[in-house]
Amino acid sequence: MANNLIPLGIDAGNGAFKLYGAAGGLELVSQVATNGTQKVLSTLGLRKSKAPLAIHNENGSFYVGAGAHDFGRPVENLDVDRFNGTPEMKALLHGSLTRFQQRYGKFSTPLAVVVGLPNEVLTGDLAEQNVEKVKRWLRGTHTWAADGEPYSVEIADVKAASQVTGGLFDYLLDGEGNFISERKGAFNSEVGIITIGFGTVELMVVRNREIVQRFTSGAASGVRRLLELINGQRLYSLGEMDMQLRTGQLDISTALPVWEREVTGVIEKQWGTAWKRFAAVLIMGGGAILLKESLPHRFNGRAYMPDEPVLAIARGLYRLTLLQQNRKGK
Question: Does position 122 have pLDDT exceeding 70, yes or no?
């Protein structure tokens, strides 16, 4: 990785698109809608709603971020093909890069990104092909307009890693990409990682710097399943349900214990009681926040949840780039 490139960690989650760099992190809710809804003028006695970020690129016009599904036709394709650069994924990338620069300033040089991918993309006969497709659409110059303002960003270098790997290095490394002394020993023993995202629950175990395959898997039991339990009649889009959850307007009291049993069932099936031999069990992802009062207690003091569970994966991928840079500089 060239030293003049700006390192950036990307966690392209189904619930939110997360970026993390030297200045900090950013989360953009993964809502996309085609921009075709006719706007209605404000009406006396009603508040005027603020439109989401409007993105126009080579694929067309989209609304992205919180509230996008209220302004256009929802686009909710949550299959693994989205990581190959579908129109909605490109719109989310461009929206995230827009918000990141609005918050932290324009990028002065090209980017070197590490993108976190779910285990489903990185396993099987098509794993190498999947990674190449991801690199192909991310690498190069991206141009778009956000709320009418032109943007252009060059991504010069792309590397891929599993999302759970990002979680591991968020635990092991500090903000300068150096190993935290009291945690470095865990890298040479066994560490279990659980990421509870919108679409999946991902498990991985690392022993002596190698992945233990039999303890590593993924299941479609993420927060989406909780929302589906509540939205049995499908009266709302998943994005609308997600916004209700985020704003505290959704009653999850009945469905939460059912979903929690599904999540713990995934863990039990893959790990059994083997977690008792792990040096630590790392729990992160947006879904981890919903289970923070119960899930960590299952691991008898071995559980660790980072200060920002949602941003931890992107932050860990960013720190991993710094570790690699530090090693090259020696």
Answer: yes
**Per-residue confidence (pLDDT) for residue 78, from 0 to 100:** 61
Q: Report the distance separating Cα 148 and Cα 186, nearest Å.
A: 49
- The string of DSSP codes covering 54-96 is EEEETTEEEEESTTGGGTSEE----SGGGGGT-HHHHHHHHHH
- Classify residue 1: in a domain, yes or no: no
What CATH number is given to the structural domain containing 63? Answer: 3.30.420.40
Domain extent, residue 65, equals 6-41+51-329
Alpha helices by DSSP H, listed for the chain, are 87-104, 119-122, 127-138, 163-172, 181-184, 223-230, 238-246, 255-271, 286-290, 312-329
Q: Say how far apart CA 16 and CA 314 lie, in whole Å.
A: 11
56: Cβ–Cβ under 8 A, 6 or more apart, which residues? 35, 62, 144, 145
pLDDT at 274 over 50: yes
- Per-residue pLDDT tens over the stretch 143-185: 999 999 999 999 999 999 988 889 999 999 999 999 999 998 8
Distance CA 238, CA 231 (A): 9
311/139 Cα distance (integer angstroms): 23
Tokens of 105: 């300033």
Is 274 domain-assigned? yes
Q: How many CB atoms lie within 10 A of CB 140?
A: 11
200 within domain boundaries: yes
Domain count, the chain: 1
Q: Compute the C-alpha angle 190/194/200, nearest 5°.
A: 145
